[in-house]
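Predict the holo structure. Ligand: iron/sulfur cluster.
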Amino acid sequence: MTDTIAKLDIRKCSLSDLEGVMETLGEKKFRARQVWEWLWKKGARSFDEMSNLSKALREQLDAQFLFQAIVEDKVQRSSDGTIKTRFRLHDGYLIESVLIPVPEENRFTVCVSCQVGCSLTCSFCATGQMKRVRNLDPAEIYDQVVLVNQQSLDNFGHPLTNIVYMGMGEPLLTYANVLESIDRITSPDGLGMSPRRITVSTAGIAKMIRKLADDEVRFNLALSLHAAEDGKRNQIMPINEQNNLASLVDSIDYFYQKTKNRISYEYIAFRNFNDTLRDAGKLALLCKRYPVRVNIIEYNPVEGTDFEKAEEDRIDSFAAHLRKEGVMVTVRRSRGKDIDAACGQLANKDL
Ligand code: SF4
């Protein structure tokens, strides 16, 4: 490559690309695998770290390629143990990831972002108030997992046990990048984590849910449902206008029949909007076609929206009603509220 050709991020190269690079540099082929291991198994974030390569080779790689690792910009700790980290991307944009520790259950979950901003404008969501700027590269998603895993080890002496794609952005609108990041996270050549520990959460794009099924993915799927009838869902999630509940249930049924992977519905309880027993009855009807767990989430008010959190006793009766209908339910009290790390609150607030 010459200076007139724009440099490529080395993490956009395949293993066979790297083998070609080594050949042109007059190096043995196995050097490519060494670099590959540094990139994906050891989570290196600069050429300097690649200590089993000669200094000359590291310098040649540095001259030829970019290494666009994300860097920690700001860390905030909640009194409940939740840690929110803002990361700076190579082009200056900021994204956020959240570490949610539940030591008593041996569960250490990272919530990762997949886009800068989001195009879907869900009315209760802080990210939806930002414009979508760009998709994250697979390596930028991967970096969040590597860095938050280190945070989990440093703070709790335990590696991550779960990964959820529920941060900023809609994963199914950056499909290829999300799947490639999961490939790196789960591959024995990468972090070797089980896909059963990964959940991709979507606002609901029926066509892409079918594509996940056709691609026979092995991770879990969550639908951000938040309302169990089209009229209400249209009000808070404009994506529902082209992807109504019937089409979503059909596509999830297709996904379940093909993959048998775990399905969950995320349901934020909003005061006097979706928290009545009538709403619970409608929701129960959407749980009949396939096994699904409903996660009822306490809302954290976001500036600039009119929504309020449902009262606790309302949530309890709502959950009890679902259970009576045979639905599996978890009520998730909100985490990280004091640092705006809770669901729907990621928006780089102090910028
Ligand atoms: S809830 Fe998710 S899909 Fe909707 S605007 Fe927020 S980040 Fe985007």
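The chain has a mean pLDDT of 93. The first strand starts at residue 8 and ends at 9.
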